[in-house]
Automatic annotation (TrEMBL), chains A, B:
Keyword Metal-binding attributed: no
The protein's name in its UniProt record: PadR family transcriptional regulator
Stored Pfam families: PadR (PF03551)
Signal sequence coordinates: none
Organism of provenance: Actinopolyspora mortivallis
Domain (Transcription regulator PadR N-terminal) ranges: 6-78
InterPro entries according to UniProt: Metal_resp_DNA-bind_regulator, Tscrpt_reg_PadR_N, WH-like_DNA-bd_sf, WH_DNA-bd_sf
Keyword terms, alphabetized: Coiled coil
Coiled-coil stretches: 111-138
Amino acid sequence: MLEFAVLGLLHETPMHGYELRKRLQEIRAFSCGTIYPTLRRMRRAGLIEEEPDEQGAQQWSRRARRVYRLTGAGRDRFVELVEDCGPRACQDETFDVRLAFFARTPAPVRMRILENRRRRLEQRREGQRAILARADEQCDRYTAQLHRLGLDHSELEVRWLDELIAHERAAQQADSK
Amino acid sequence: MLEFAVLGLLHETPMHGYELRKRLQEIRAFSCGTIYPTLRRMRRAGLIEEEPDEQGAQQWSRRARRVYRLTGAGRDRFVELVEDCGPRACQDETFDVRLAFFARTPAPVRMRILENRRRRLEQRREGQRAILARADEQCDRYTAQLHRLGLDHSELEVRWLDELIAHERAAQQADSK
DNA sequence: GTGCCGATATATCGGGGCGATATAATCCGA
DNA sequence: TCGGATTATATCGCCCCGATATATCGGCAC
């Protein structure tokens, strides 16, 4: 999913590794031990190209920086990934990155991702309710409290999703008129 | 931290890999691609020993199972780890495993872990508040909502921690009388 | 002026953990 | 009696993290 995030950021404008890292941290705190290898992998896969910093000819070329830009294949790959609304798109680790690029995701895909996410969370919530019901008898206080926290987290996110979905539906209806 | 969880479970009673897996899933969903290699590593490190299932001589020895039990070194290691209340003990990935064995954690260590966890969460919360303040102007709706969800999660957990800490303090005072 | 700190910038390494998959044996119901 | 679920162990490639190494530059203090 780091690949998706890089694709999305470079889709806006080319930039070098360090700037990429800073922008990525607004989305999720990827470590640099992840970013640079991924950048290389993507370069080898032909999704991005790199070139020495052109405007670095000016006084502030601190060090040899490389500017990364999307290739045509990279652009295609982003479009392909942004339209995926399968099970992967609503996993915990993926969902937040997907949401960060929702503005460039087609509305029907947005809707399906939100609904799939909701379904998944609902299942988890039911599982946690079942566990909690048993936990109050079987487990020690701490474990029971831990389960309660998990359930509260799930319920919070379901409510949050419902708000988003409602807003999304309203926007769809406004569009279709 | 899987190591810690395994140590904690085997501290109660010896058991074989599959039972270990089931018990672990009540704590956190470790994958089997993690568990068996860890078990081997721990065996090589002398923390656990394995032997063919003794009572498997009965009719239901489905397959060659190995029963794992703690060695003396393993017992020592658990005691050592259970008393750690440094920064590692209050990280996201670690904290829930630590809490699962709180009943066998000394009360002063419990208290420090809870307080360190609270401090860490408070910092995150402040960071998220700052981001959210900027996000409402700069980001699109979706990103801003994502940040709000993150903040809500943090605030939920801080409140939850405060409850636990208050309960812990009350228990301590009751003990010291 | 110089000497150090912090930010900029790129890169590697070891290791933990995940998900998929392989492989078997045994149990149970159709 | 056949097949699917459960019990049971193991391996593979991959993603990602955190620590660490290595430079360069700007700016501040002394």
